[in-house]
Amino acid sequence: MLVPLAFQEIAAKHTSDMHVCMRTTFDLPDQLLDRARRVAQEAGSSMRDLVIEGLTEVIARRSRLKDQPYRLQDCAVQGEGLQPGVTDLRAEGIRDLIHDEAARFRP
C-alpha cells in the first residue's frame, strides 16, 4: 500500500522578493516512508528537510554526471601484446583467428 507524503517545496520561482511555496503530494512505498521517518527523527530534522536534502543531492549528482564524459573502466590484462603473425586487426580478421583456433580443438 502506498502512503501519500505531503510537504512544502521551495520553488525556484520568485515574485519580486517573495518566495513561492508549493504543496506537493508523493506516493511512497510504506517501507521507504518508514525508513525516511526514522532517518529524519534520528537526525533531529523534519521529513520536509530530509526530502529537500535528498532532492538537492540527487539533482546535483545527476548534473555533475551529465557534464562528465563517460569513461570505460580499464580492463587491460597483463600480456605480451599481439601474438606473432597477427596482422589483420579488422573484426573479420579477428573472427577468423578465433574460429581457426577453436577448430584446432574440435575432435
The secondary structure category is alpha+beta
Let me know the largest β-sheet: 2 strands, antiparallel
Fraction of helical residues: 40-55%
DSSP summary, beta strand count: 2
Low-confidence stretches: 1-16
Pattern of helices and strands: EEHHH
Overall mean pLDDT:
79
Rg calculated over all Cα atoms:
28 Å
- Terminal CA distance: 60 Å
DSSP helical segment count: 3
Beta-strand residue fraction: 15-25%
Shape assignment: elongated
Spatial strand sequence of the major β-sheet: 1-2
Summarize the structure.
With 107 residues, the chain is an alpha+beta fold. The protein is 46% helix and 24% strand.
Explain this structure.
The protein is α+β, with helices and mostly antiparallel strands. It has a domain at 2-67. Helices cover 46% and strands 24% of the residues. It is built from three helices and two strands; from the N terminus they run E-E-H-H-H. It has helices at residues 30-43, 47-67, 91-104; strands at 2-15, 18-29. Residues 1-16 have low confidence and may be disordered.
Question: Which labels suit this protein?
Answer:
107 residues; alpha+beta; two-stranded antiparallel sheet; elongated
